[in-house]
Amino acid sequence: MIFSALLLASTQPMASVRVAFDRHGETAVAAKGLADLGSGRAVTADDPVRIASISKLVTAIGVMRLVEQHRLDLDADVSTLLGYRLRNPAFPDTPITLRLLLSHRSSLIDGVDYVLPLDADLRTVLADPKVWDGAHAPGRFFRYTNLNFPVVATVMERATGERFDRLMHDLVLAPLKLDACYNFTTCSDAAVARIVVQYRKGQVTRDDNHGARPACPVTRARDGSCDLDAYRPGTNGAIFSPQGGLYVSARDLAKIGRLLLNRGRADGVRFLGPASVATLQTPLWIYDGSNGDTGEDPAGNHQAGFICSYGIATMLLATAKAGCHDDPFGDGRRRLGHAGDAYGLRSGLWIDPKSGTGVAYFATDVSLEETPKRSAYTRTEEMLAKPD
Fold first, then answer.
1. I need a labelling partner for 318 at 20 to 30 A (CA). Which of 51, 192, 221, 326 fits?
2. Residue 251: pLDDT over 50
């Protein structure tokens, strides 16, 4: 009990894990703190956690696999696959494409709750004027918007006829030998038993499931039911949290980093073509002082200069522009990957293609009162990115 009280009073994270790697494998692993305060279980590098917005990058890898299979086109009007016309009502003649959705330039905004119940119809949500930026046409302004990714997931379902969670398992997670899943649905029982509980100020924010699967892995239907078998793929990809609901360990996250470092090869086997990896890593938006909002971090908190360069679900760091503070490493080197922030967790997956190195990390119960030393990131993220 004394140990628990000390943890609750501390400003240190409840748990933190860091895996450094290069093109060949892991170079350093560190884990400290508790995965579960209630049981006293120590965290390890193999424990899955809801990794937040790094999920977007993994979703994009799935998209690129479908592009390589000629089942998706980054520049096609998504209306064709959705089966209904998707347009910003203020700019009805401008098509919305996957490239725009994946790079947060679609002109969608998080004007409504994007966490939708099982029986919701995404088409109805997208018809609400509150989800559209009436001042900026698609392709003309960057605004970090979680709602983009339920649309991406729904397009993926329409292209394949498969539920997003199962599709990502078959397309990405299983081939890469990752014991990971979106919303608990395809993770092994062993992985579920090791899920990291999330906290804020010592209080549980999610996933305190005592090693078991939740009774309903998605947001229940409005009548309280949870019949996933009744779900019709292509109607509501939001239920599988493509924007933030990936459960993955830091060790498995590092494997994704090595995939990108090795230009699409995983364990010596070609998984993505080099051109697809280059597409993921190419910036589509760079802040110029007026062409986007740099202040939205992956949880929607306003932190000016947090994002200043973005590609296909990929953040690029150390942008040399006035007003940009997107370098938690503090060395000015160009890195790419993604950050995550939700329910008290902070996470990051970053690679440096020039040096052939990278780091994957997360921390739970990160204090909102932390003062960073060198960036718009928290002090915890700066320490995990580049330990002092």
1. 51
2. yes
